[in-house]
Write a structure and sequence with these properties.
alpha+beta; DNA-binding; 52% helix; 4-stranded mixed sheet; DNA Topoisomerase I, domain 2; Topoisomerase I, Chain A, domain 3; topoisomerase; 4 domains
DNA sequence: TTTGGGGACTCAGAAATGTACTG
DNA sequence: GCAGTACATTTCTGAGTCCCCAA
């Protein structure tokens, strides 16, 4: 502290380490983060510390930071045996606490540890970033198990907040988190029977939507003319949810979270209307932050009636007013429930994602391709879905570099192709002159070589395109949460692609139900 | 009768960790 | 054969959706 070390109380010191560990992160440069942190930090200080430490800017965390950097490096540099030992210890803990017994089956738990204390990191412009996330004590934890089971013992000298026996819910333990005052749960791993069955159900609901979606579309198109403004807004919103795979957009408490929206919570400022744009008519330009503060930007040509309705909804409103001021997700979902049992707004996302994958696979797969080529088609189809759902990622740090390396490979291959072309020419000339069998064989050999090189070049080019197109797109989310795995499994079986090529071990465990179920004829 | 909050679950990208490849 | 790095996988926990219930 101003230039000289200061001995802190244990609690104060621990919180200081939370901040020091994050020094490299952009978070710590933000004023809100600093203010929230300092406010919460001071609350935990002794009165003497409060007296001394009145200004965060005067605190120098660099020594603490350095300590942790060194510690993590020391850990990395540990000899093999030591690392092995650590791993074994972790495995032992996993073995003891990572499983539960459900209906007589041993099932893997998803998150079997409570979250450690630290500084809250919200996504985007979060008003609570930097606040202190407190340590969870046994006294905060509710245990949920069967009456006749062996009830887990709390740590020595502690007791649980509560032990209950509720078999209508799936969680094993829960606690209330102190930042947003919401519940957190210990639940099963996606590979469990329970989660698998729910996953299956989800896709079955989406498949049922397939049967009635045409009627529903006809219905909402008709409702664009509804006399009731509420219904008209609902019909336009549903059109966006269906066509653009937008999320429902529940209302959120202002000031508690980052300012993000979904369909029903869109504000006037989030869209622009262009009667004409780039040769298209009735273009709506969307620009807003969605879940996780991921930007949604899109220009879409819409039906004239939708366009007119939007103009009407925006009339005499401020930019910060709700676009669909008469609409709530509750009202929308009630309507959907009425149209089809189990139908809610999010089902459209699942349905459109899965049907898009199926259609794209049909359109893009060439049975003549080798496995690599087919996988490329698969990734393209997957990508189409990710684009639809707006699943983004930040550009990988090493992207530019690895792209350069790939480009260098392509250039080298090009050169090889050129050389092979010349060699072939030479061989052909020679054959022209000599017309002997040896020269002919040589021509064939050179032809083969050229062909192989050209194929390699083509493959590299495709790889580069694939990489470039994938730069900002995250495929994982749709693969894990939106695409009926049976579509992919059927595709694999039909085209002789090993399932391991598209699903890794964890994913195969999660989709075990589908692997057991789908044959090559499966249709979503 | 809506509205608001609690509760339980799915979905989300970043960060940490593990593995495989390359020079 | 080994270290360093690129890439893949796993973990983590925040951020949504949607239902229910009570005032």
């Amino acid at each position: 502290f101003p230039g000289k070390p200061l001995k802190l109380s244990l609690a104060t010191e621990e919180i200081a380490t939370f901040y020091a560990k994050m020094l490299d992160h952009e978070y710590t440069t933000k004023e809100i983060f600093q203010n929230n942190f300092f406010h919460d930090w001071r609350k935990e200080m002794t009165s003497e510390e409060q007296e001394i430490i009145q200004d965060l800017a005067k605190c120098d965390f660099s020594e603490i930071h350095k300590y942790f950097v060194e510690k993590s490096e020391a850990r990395k540099a540990l000899p093999k045996e030591e690392k092995q030992k650590l791993k074994e210890e972790a495995d032992k803990i996993q073995e003891e606490y990572g499983y539960c017994l459900l209906d007589g089956h041993r099932e893997k738990i998803g998150n079997f540890k409570t979250e450690p204390p630290g500084l809250f990191r919200g996504r985007g412009d979060h008003p609570k970033m930097g606040m202190l996330k407190k340590r969870i004590m046994p006294e905060d934890v509710i245990i949920n198990c069967s009456k006749d089971s062996k009830i887990p013992e709390p740590p020595e000298g502690h007791k649980w907040k509560e032990v209950r026996f509720d078999n209508t819910v799936t969680w094993l333990a829960s606690w209330t988190e102190n930042i947003q005052n919401t519940l957190k749960y210990i639940m099963l791993n996606p590979s469990s029977k329970l989660k698998g069955e729910k996953d299956w159900q989800k896709y079955e609901v989406a498949r049922r939507l397939k049967d009635v979606v045409h009627e529903i579309r006809a219905r909402y198109r008709a409702d664009w003319k509804s006399k009731e403004m509420k219904n008209r807004q609902r019909a336009v919103a549903l059109y966006f949810i269906d066509k653009l795979a937008l999320r429902a957009g529940n209302e959120k408490e202002e000031g508690e979270t980052a300012d993000t929206v979904g369909c029903c919570s869109l504000r006037v400022e989030h869209i622009k209307l262009h009667p004409r744009l780039d040769g298209q008519e009735h273009v709506v330009e969307f620009d807003f932050l969605g879940k996780d503060s991921i930007r949604y930007y899109n220009k879409v040509s819409v039906e004239k009636r939708v366009f007119k309705n939007l103009q009407l909804f925006m009339k005499n409103k401020d930019p910060s007013d709700d676009l669909f001021d008469r609409l709530t997700t509750n009202f929308l979902n009630k309507h959907l429930q009425h149209l089809m049992d189990g139908l809610t707004a999010k089902v459209f996302r699942t349905y459109n994602a899965s049907i898009t994958l199926q259609e794209q696979l049909k359109a893009l797969t060439n049975p003549e391709d080798n496995v690599a080529g087919k996988l490329l088609s698969y990734n393209r189809a997957n990508r189409a879905v990710a684009v639809l759902c707006n699943h983004q990622r930040s550009v990988p740090k090493t992207f530019a570099k690895s792209m350069e390396i790939l480009q260098a490979k392509i250039d080298a291959k090009k050169k090889q192709v050129e050389e092979a072309q010349q060699e072939l020419k030479k061989a052909e000339d020679e054959l022209e002159d000599t017309k002997d069998a040896k020269a002919e064989a040589n021509v064939e050999k050179k032809k083969k070589l050229l062909k192989r090189l050209e194929e390699q070049l083509a493959r590299l080019n495709v790889q580069a395109t694939d990489k470039e197109e994938n730069k900002q797109i995250a495929l994982g989310t749709s693969k894990l949460n939106y695409l009926d795995p049976r579509i992919s499994i059927a595709w694999c079986k039909k085209f002789g692609v090993p399932i391991e090529k598209i699903y890794n071990k964890t994913q195969r465990e999660k989709f075990a139900w589908a692997i057991a179920m789908a044959n090559e004829d499966f249709e979503f």
